[in-house]
């Protein structure tokens, strides 16, 4: 078993770095002046540009975690027009299904579900080609626990002939009475903390930073002169 593990590790390194046998490497890269450049592999596969517009609907929680004491939460819903991601979008919706009377498709009907229970959490409307739409919801369908809940969104045209789906996960954790809790704001990117400083009541913003040290020993004296 140990020999097999070593063999797999060696083969993995060889495939990862793509270095021919006998070529000395440092951190996976040939470093001798006599070595030729090698294709490292692992290039990104870029999406294919689509000629027709697509509607890209996504959903995520406003914050990376919620606490039971928050009582309610917020989803961020995006519905952007894209030529790379999403589902087919036709800018038309029929006032009466099956008729020729139509209107521009500019508004999405939103339904958000707790996948575990199959329960409808909230309904709303958002504009086509809009982002950062905030949709509030209650924790009534989400008892506090350590495991995440799966949440899905169904977005449809007014005539329901065009539909789009997406999924996300949310954490609704038990309230704190000791230690601290930190959450990330997925809308603006900030950090919020709850701890003894505010008696575990609500949240306050923080600006994290690393340690500070005098770098003069590596900084030329005239760098800022």
TrEMBL record:
Residues 1-16 form the signal peptide. Keywords: Signal. The keyword Signal applies. It comes from the Eukaryota. This is Uncharacterized protein. The keyword Signal applies.
